[in-house]
Amino acid sequence: MPTLSEHDVFIFVAQLGVILISAKIFGEIARKLEQPIIVGEVIAGILLGPMLFGKFLPTYYNFLFPNTGAHQYLLQGISWLCVLFLLMITGLEIDFRASIKEGKQCFLISIFGLVISLGGVFLVTPLLPDYFYPDGVNRFHVNMLISIALSVVAIPVIAKILFDLKILRSEVGVKILTSGVLSDIWGWTILAIAISLIASGTITAAVILKPLITMILYLTVTLTIGRVIIDKMLDLFGYKELDTTLAISLLFSLMLLNGAVAHLLGIHVIFGAFIAGVMAGESTKISEYIRQWTQEFIFAVFAPIFFVLIGMQLQFTKGEIWLPILILFIASSICKIAGMFFGGVLGKMGRKNAFAVACGLNTQGTMGIIVALIAYDMGIFNDHLFSTIVVICILTSLFVGPLLKWAIARVKRPLAKFFDQEHVFLNVEGDSKKKVIENIAKLMAERKIIDNEEYIQKMIWERERVMSTAIGDGIAVPHARIKNLKEPILCFFRLKDPVDFASPDNLPVQLLFLELTDRNDDGMQLNLIAQIARFISAADNRQRLLDCEKEEDIHHILSFDEKV
Predict the structure, then answer these.
(1) Fewer beta carbons within 10 Å, N or C terminal of the chain?
(2) Domain extents for the chain?
(3) For residue 508, what is the DSSP state?
(4) Looking at 268, 423, 479, 555, which residue is catalytic?
C-alpha cells in the first residue's frame, strides 16, 4: 500500500496552514470593508496562485505547491470535502415545510427566475469567443452548463446578507430564502439531467426522464422516510442531551453516506450532501444553537480552504476576457431580476416587495462556483471559462448587498406615523413563546388597538410557526399580514422575563416589535422591519429600551430619536 513520506505530510500541513491564515487575513479585510468574506478569501487564493506567487516567486511557489506527487490530489480531495460541507449547511438552513407553506408566490418566483435566467444567458452564449470552448467538446453542452451556473442562487451568501441587514426573519426575507431554495432545487435537478445528457452524448426520452424520475423518487424518500430515520437516530442518542460534538458527528456521517447513496443512484454526490442538510434541517430535534455552531465551524475552517483553492485555479492569460465577463454578468443579472420580479408580481406580491425579493436573489456566489467546478472537472469548462464564471459569481456577491439596500430604501416610510404611546407595553408576562403571543394580543385588544383578538393571535402564531421572528441580541419582530387592514399597526413590548424564541444566537428574547400590515402592503412591512433593525443594531439603543421605566420614554425614543 502506497504511503505518504514525512516530506509529503510536511508539505500538506504547510499548504493548509498558509491557505487558512491567508484566508483569515484577507477575509477580515473584506469584512472591514463591508464586503462578503468569500471575496477576500478568493483574492487570497489569487495571490497564492500561479498568477502572482507563482509568477514572481516561482522557486518558493513550486516548493510549497509542487505539481507532481500526491500533494495536488490531497488538496483536490480536501476541496471536494469542503464543497460537501458547504452544501450540507446550505441544506441545513432550509425549512422545506415552510417553503411548501409559502406556496404560490415563491413557486412562481423560483420558476420564472430560473427559466428566464437560463434562457437569457443561453441566448447570449453565441457572443462568447472561441477560446472559451475546449477542443472536442460539444458547444451546446458548454452553453448549457454556463446557463445553469449563472442561474442558480447562493443561499449561504443571501442568508448572511439578510442576517446582516436584520431582515432574515421578515416576510420578504422568508420569501427570498424560500424562493432561492426552490430555485436551487429546480436548478440541481436540471444539472442532474444535463450531466446525464453529457455522459450519454445523445438526447433521448430515457436520458431526460431517468434522472428526473430518480430525482423525484430520491427527494420523496429522503424528505419523508429519511427525516423519520433521523429523528429515530436522535432519539437513540438522546437528543435532549445532544451536545455539539455528537451532533456534528451525526450530521457529517449523514452527509457522507447520503452523498454516497446519491452517487450510486446516478445523482451527483454534492446533491446528496445538500439533501442531507435539508433532511437534518427538517428535524425539530436539531436545536438552533447546534445549527448555528455547525455553520460557524464550517465557515471558519472548510469554507476558507475551498474559496482560496478556487482563487488559486483562476487564470487570466487573455486580456480580452473582461468583455465576455461583462456580457454574461449583465445578461444573467437582468434576466434573473426580471424573472423573479415577474414571478412575484404574477403571484400578487406587490411590485416593491417583488423587486426587493428579485434584487436579494441576484447572486450565484457559492452555488455558481460549485457548478463551474463540476463542469471544470468534467472537462466541459477550460481555465478561461472557469475563471470567467468564478469572477461573475464574486461580482454578484459584491453587488447583491448594496442592491438589496437600495431596493429597501425605495419604500421608506416614517416610523412614527403608525406608532403612538398607547402602543407601548412594559412588563409583559409569559413563560413561553405561545403564551407571550396570547398575552400581547390580549393587551392590544384591551387598549382597542385591534378588534378581533383571537384572529390576530392566530395570524401572529401562524407566521411564527413558519420561522422564528427572533433576530438575535434578545429581540424579536413578530409580524403578520391582515386582510383589509387600513393602517399598519406597530407596537412595542418589553417582557418581564426573557423567553426562548429560538433565536439564531441562542439568546432569550425580551424586546418585541410587533407589526401588522395589510396583505398587499407594497413593501411597508419590510420597510418597517428595516427601520427598526437600523435602530436596534446599536447596543446602546437596545440598552436604553431595557432601562426605561415609563411607556412615554420608550415612545419618545422610538418615535423621535434621529437614529430611527
Answers:
(1) N
(2) 73-409, 415-560
(3) P
(4) 479
Give the per-residue pLDDT at 563: 34
Tens digits of residue pLDDT in 157-211 = 676 667 666 565 556 677 787 788 788 778 877 887 787 777 766 666 766 677 7
Tell me: domain 73-409, CATH 3.30.70.1400, correct?
no
- Can you read off the three cell numbers belonging to residue 238? 438522546
Q: Is 479 a catalytic residue?
A: yes
Largest CA distance in the chain: 79
Determine the Cα–Cα distance for residues 369 and 306; give it in Å rounded to an integer: 10
What is the predicted pLDDT for the residue at 336?
A: 92
Number of H helices, E strands in the chain: 24, 6
- Whole-angstrom Cα distance, residue 298 to residue 156? 12
- Predicted confidence (pLDDT) per residue in 443-494, tens digit: 989 888 888 888 889 888 888 887 788 888 888 888 888 887 777 888 889 9
- Whether the Cβ atoms of residue 558 and residue 535 lie closer than 8 Å to each other: yes
- Mean pLDDT within 376-386: 86
- Taking residues 517-537, what's their average pLDDT? 71
Contact, 341 vs 358, CB < 8 A? yes
Q: What is the mean pLDDT of the chain?
A: 80
Cβ 100 vs Cβ 465: under 8 Å: no
The residues, any chain, with a CB within 8 Å of residue 93's CB and separated by 6 or more, are 155, 156, 159, 177, 277, 281, 291, 295
Cite the beta strand spans of 458-508 per DSSP E. Answer: 470-472, 475-476, 479-482, 489-499
d(CA 271, CA 215): 10
> What does the H/E/C string look like for 135-193?
CCCCHHHHHHHHHHHCCCCCHHHHHHHHHHCCCCCCHHHHHHHHHHHHHHHHHHHHHHH
Decide the pairing of beta strands 475-476 and 509-518: parallel
Grid cell digits, residue 300: 471558519
Question: What pLDDT, on a 0 to 100 scale, did the predictor assign at position 58?
Answer: 87
Contacts of 275 (CB under 8 A, 6+ apart): 91, 218, 219, 222, 223, 258, 262
Residues 398-426 have a mean pLDDT of 70
Count other Cβ atoms within 10 Å, centred on residue 77.
11
